[in-house]
User: Fold this.
Amino acid sequence: MTRRSRSRLEPAEWYSIRPTRSLKPATYTCPICGYRLHAMSDHVLIAPEGDMSRRRHAHRECVAAANLPGRPAGRGLLSRLLGRS
Ligand SMILES: [Zn+2]
Assistant:
């Protein structure tokens, strides 16, 4: 089974999203649209469930359009919504 997790945004219950910009001469592949983005442009870091080891760089416009779920407002809120205890 082939997984292309490096090029796709992994499913998560919520995402930590924060704006970033770096001075590194690097390019990243946006996990939402699949196009390249430059590290030196204004973009955002998306971390599934706040896990920065799985963070991805994405275009601001793509993240805005995707309307990703943000960090739950309070501890326990998400588990109540999902019917877990
Ligand atoms: Zn994009």
Observations:
- The chain is about 15% helix and 25% strand.
- The chain has a mean pLDDT of 85.
